[in-house]
Design a protein that fits this description.
3 domains; 346 residues; Heat Shock Protein 90; single chain; five-stranded mixed β-sheet; five-stranded antiparallel β-sheet; Beta-Lactamase; alpha+beta; 43% helix
């Protein structure tokens, strides 16, 4: 009597078929010849495939042949031979008479009894809408950058017009005090324009302070120092990066302090140096502007604060920093110090 042996069930295949049937994502189960063993319902619906066409159909023949992509075919064969896994392979599916779809594919060989044949699990994600959204975002960012650039040009032009109007006023007024105030306002408009011009050349996000302060001071020196062998303006800074808002405040402070030193620290065409320095210490930082000329006046405490002093105090307050003025022997050192461990003085 012949004994009949029941066939050994292919547990891994049964499990793969169950996964495909339960999947809510488009999934195909392929054999080593890249014929379709099973397809998830979501694959059939999303890619308009008739369920009756699936069994025994080659992947390349699905639909109208749009899946017959040589590069995909080569990658799947390499995966079948155990030479590779397909991870996030992107391709355009171009059905006849329909819009192209951008897909991301993942494929891997299933580990089971090799005598049962090769099995590949192929998952498909349609990212057409996502890519279109990304392109739209890129276009919006590009449009925004163009708009910001246009606004910056308009601001620069407006500042130049305002400065010109102020200079015309200087020529017309008869009072020396009025001329002084108009010139002071004119100089501050130019300082704001200098800050704006250098920030316009930077990114919209963070700013590298060494380059920014160096370019800013070079611009100030070119416009206000007649003899660079007589007066020197130097900048030293570490590798700090600062948000654009903080950079604007630092640039305005430096501009005010440097202009003040150029106007008052070197009477009688004295030689000298103005040194700008920025250093970060942990979460804190110190900005200093120091000259080596006549030094602080004896009646400094009695001196009436000017417009520049008010601007510096306001900007330092916005940055959560304190102001320290010390005798540099010779000269004067103004330090703007931000120390998170202590509260700023009012």
């Amino acid at each position: 009597m012949t004994t009949m042996t029941a066939p050994v069930p292919d547990i891994s295949l049964d499990l793969a078929l169950s996964l495909v049937a339960a999947s809510v994502a488009p999934v195909l189960l392929l054999d080593g010849e890249l014929e379709v063993v099973a397809a998830s319902q979501s694959f059939l619906e999303q890619f308009d495939v008739d369920p009756g066409d699936v069994p025994g159909c080659r992947l390349a023949d699905l639909g109208g042949g749009e899946w017959n992509v040589p590069q995909l075919w080569s990658l799947l064969k390499a995966t079948a031979y155990g030479q590779a896994d397909i991870r996030a392979y992107e391709m355009d599916l171009k059905p006849s008479g329909k819009a192209a779809r951008h897909l991301v594919l993942h494929a891997r060989r299933l580990h089971h009894n090799p005598e049962r044949g090769v099995r590949l699990l192929l998952t498909v994600a349609d990212v057409t809408a996502l890519r279109a959204s990304d392109r739209q975002k890129d276009e919006l960012i590009r449009d925004k950058a163009i708009l910001v650039q246009e606004v910056q040009h308009r601001v620069a032009n407006s500042l130049q017009i305002i400065a010109s109007v102020l200079m015309q006023g200087v020529r017309k007024v008869g009072s020396d005090e009025s001329r002084h105030h108009l010139r002071d306002a004119h100089q501050r408009i130019l300082s704001v324009a200098a800050v704006q011009r250098h920030l316009a050349g930077s990114t919209l996000g963070d700013v590298e302070l060494r380059t920014y302060l160096t370019d800013l001071c070079r611009s100030i020196g070119d416009s206000m120092i007649r003899d660079h062998t007589q007066l020197r303006l130097t900048v030293t800074a570490d590798d700090s990066i600062a948000p654009s808002g903080k950079s604007v405040s630092l640039g305005l402070i430096v501009t005010e302090l440097v202009i003040n030193a150029l106007k008052h620290a070197f009477p009688g065409d004295r030689d000298g140096t103005i040194a700008v320095d920025y250093r970060a210490q942990g979460d804190g930082w110190t900005l200093s502007v120091q000259d080596d000329s006549v030094g602080m006046p004896a009646d400094l405490e009695k001196a009436k604060p000017g417009l520049g002093t008010g601007i510096i105090r306001a900007l330092a307050g916005q940055l959560g920093a304190t102001i320290a003025i010390t005798d540099a022997a010779p000269g004067t050192r103004v330090s703007i110090v931000c120390d998170p461990r202590s509260s700023p003085l009012s």
